[in-house]
Amino acid sequence: MKYADKIHEDVDFLQRAEKAQSNAINRDRIRFLKLLKTGRANTQSAAGEAIGLGQRHAQRLWHTYQQGGFQALMVKPTRHSLGKLSSVQISHLRQFLFDDQAQRLEDIQAYLAGSLGVEYTIGGVSALCKRLKIKQKTGRPVNVRQRPGAIAFFKKI
């Protein structure tokens, strides 16, 4: 297959686009096309290997180029969603935690399932708390020899 005929952009355009590109992933994609266009790589696998891609990834890039052209390769990859909860549900969860109604991860799990209708495993609740920077709040330690009510008596004087 002659890739030089299949790639519509000329080498000068690819060179300028590669230098102008600040995103490293897109720069590699342009370099992939440039290697095929100039003939320095005879196959998709060779072009992919030259820029550090596997064979399957190179095939997917070529397929994307064939389907949508140069612009389809320059699309930024989308980020996946941050979880099952919307921003409103996260604010409800934060209010629930602010009111000190949860002592354990199981309590948070039950609240999510009962009030918000979202099912999480215990590990998922733990990951959610880490992602939202929710930390366990504990009181200060108390001396075991301290008499109950001694601090209140001391402060009254």
UniProtKB/TrEMBL annotation:
Pfam families per record: HTH_33
InterPro entries in the cross-refs: Homeodomain-like_sf (IPR009057), Winged_HTH_dom (IPR025959)
Segments forming domain Winged helix-turn helix: 100-156
UniProt superkingdom: Bacteria
Protein name as annotated: Transposase
The species this protein was found in: Spirosoma utsteinense
